[in-house]
Amino acid sequence: MSEDKSGAGPKSVPREAVLEASKGMLQRQLYAIFTTPVDGLGPVFAVIEEHLQYQVGLEAEGILHAAGPMWTDDEKSWEGEGMVVVRAASCAEAIAIAERDPMHKAGARRFTVRPWLVNEGSITITLNNSSQTFTIR
């Protein structure tokens, strides 16, 4: 463990300690790809269609868990940032997935990948047969 000199406790703990502390929970390993524009939104919009097709392809393959734009903090606009969460066997594989994205291949955005252990949360899907509608929350 990395100790915090302020007395607040450790700054970090080994992965194994986190897994032990959350045993019995989901412990699904995913990877979050944070993507930001390199030179404004012009280059982003130039490849947006190819990027979205790539995302839909990842979804069809069962690789894409979730993706979408990240609003500004005031929730009023978009400055080109996004987050993509993928299922991958390793961080290296998640990086390779990000590198194949037309957005990154074109140099319109740069990315970082962070491993993300999902333990808690829920998804509720309501299917209404009579109206043939559904809601997801």
UniProtKB/TrEMBL annotation:
It comes from Sagittula salina. This is YCII-related domain-containing protein. The lineage of its organism: Bacteria, Pseudomonadati, Pseudomonadota, Alphaproteobacteria, Rhodobacterales. Belongs to the YciI family. Coiled coil: none annotated. It comes from the Bacteria. Residues 31-116 form the YCII-related domain. InterPro entries: Dimeric_a/b-barrel, YCII. It holds the Pfam family YCII.
